[in-house]
Write a structure and sequence with these properties.
The complex is a heterodimer of chains A (about 260) and B (about 120).
Chain A (H helix, E strand, L loop, with lengths): L12 H15 L6 H24 L4 H12 L2 H10 L3 H13 L7 H31 L8 H32 L5 H27 L8 H36 L5
Helix pairs in contact in A: 1-2, 1-3, 1-4, 2-3, 2-9, 6-7, 7-8, 8-9
Chain B lengths: L7 E2 H4 L3 H9 L4 E2 H11 L4 E2 L5 H11 L2 E5 L12 E5 L1 H25 L4
Parallel strand pairs in B: 1-3
Antiparallel strand pairs in B: 2-5, 4-5
Helix pairs in contact in B: 2-3, 2-5
Classes of the chains: A mainly alpha (about 260), B alpha+beta (about 120).
């Protein structure tokens, strides 16, 4: 019997688990975007399963076939290094950003929100300082834009962005975790759309009194712009969420494995 | 003529794994396990690779555009996770040709030095 052609050869749960752990031992340490790592997991697991079936076809019992299949895949440390060497820099960068913006399960939601918003604000502050320094370098004195009242305005704006970022990060992670197990994509999509619309809508309401011309708020032009931006944010959030949900559904089983 | 019953290991072959993978895909598209089976058949059983090492090689080839991959629709009755099937691209054929020329040069040069029969 050629087990590789006999698709009815059952894989027992112990073998399935052992092969998954062996694959996860190889892939988990690889620093790359999760979508790329999910592909690696899928392929190596499919290969390990075929190797197991091949070993069973040679007459080995399930336990021996399992060990032989894992040995055939190769040394985990060596294979991790080979996989890592082939990850392009863009994927490594994506993994670094991803690790930064995703909340780990053990991190309290409030700490994640503060860190995310604080990092974003620090980035903006660094940008403003850099622009100011470049202006001094360019024209030999501080740019006229850096008047005290403008600096107060920028500080107030930065604080508003920080507060909105905190609330947004907090509720985004709450919605994300709540909807991760949603059986209905429609329910998840509605949840994300509502979050996007509320976030961008509230940012517009908070910031417009600061940056908008007096007396323009709630004019037809303002209302149209505000509704359009909120709708675009809702659509963008839905699109992002669908990709995220699809990825998380595939990942959860792998990340739940205990790998030494 | 190679010695009988002396397996060629991954360490000896690593530098040429990509060329071998491309050569195996010349027969037609295949998933990783089938590529390995083709390599073992062509090597008459003397080829002993750590099978997982094939996938980093395939990913490098894919990154370079030498092969393209698609997810295999589950053929009738097959269970298990979906597999990715790899196929040679025109760029891959050119890389394979260069790999063959490089190998022929290597064999010729090293053979002359060590006095091995051609």
């Amino acid at each position: 019997m050629n087990a590789n052609e006999n698709a009815s050869l059952e894989i027992d749960p112990t073998t399935d688990h052992a092969l998954r752990v062996a694959v996860e031992r190889v892939v988990r340490p690889v620093h790359a975007e999760e979508s790329r790592k999910l592909r690696m997991r899928g392929e190596l697991f499919a290969h390990a399963l075929e190797a197991y079936q091949d070993e069973r076809a040679r007459g080995r019992d399930p336990s021996a076939a399992r060990d032989a299949a894992i040995a055939r895949v190769g040394d985990p440390a060596d294979l991790t290094a080979e996989l890592q060497a082939g990850v392009p820099w863009s994927s490594r960068w994506g993994a670094t950003v991803d690790r930064f913006i995703r909340r780990r399960p053990e991190t309290p939601r409030w700490r994640y929100a503060l860190c995310t918003a604080g990092s974003a604000m620090a980035g903006f502050a660094a940008l403003f300082v850099l622009i100011g320094l470049l202006a001094i370098f360019e024209i030999g004195k501080p740019h006229p834009l850096w008047r005290p009242e403008v600096q107060r305005f920028l500080l107030f704006g930065a604080l508003m962005i920080f507060m909105t970022g905190c609330l947004g990060s907090y509720f985004a992670s709450l919605v994300r975790d709540t909807l991760a197990g949603a059986s209905s994509s429609l329910a998840a999509a509605i949840g994300w759309a509502a979050l996007g619309a509320v976030l961008i809508g509230s940012m517009g309401l908070l910031l417009w009194p600061i940056v908008g011309a007096p007396g323009v708020m709630w004019s037809p032009q303002f209302t149209f712009s505000w509704l359009t931006l909120s709708a675009l944010a809702a659509i963008a959030m839905v699109a992002i969420s669908q990709l995220d949900i699809r990825e998380r559904r595939g990942l959860q089983d792998w990340l739940a494995l205990e790998v030494d | 003529m190679p010695k009988e019953n002396v397996p060629l290991t991954g360490a000896q072959l690593r530098g040429h794994l990509e060329t071998m993978a491309l050569a195996s895909l010349e027969e037609g598209e295949a998933h990783g396990f089938e590529v390995l089976r083709r390599l073992e058949r062509a090597g008459c059983g003397a080829l002993k690779l750590k099978e997982g090492s094939l996938y980093p090689a395939l990913y490098r080839l894919e990154e370079r555009g030498s092969v393209k991959a698609r997810v295999e629709e589950n053929p009738g009755g097959r269970r298990g996770p979906a597999r990715r099937v790899y196929a040679l691209t025109p760029k891959g054929r050119r890389q394979l040709q260069r790999g063959r020329e490089d190998w022929a040069t290597l064999v010729s040069v090293i053979g002359s030095i060590v006095g091995a029969p051609a």
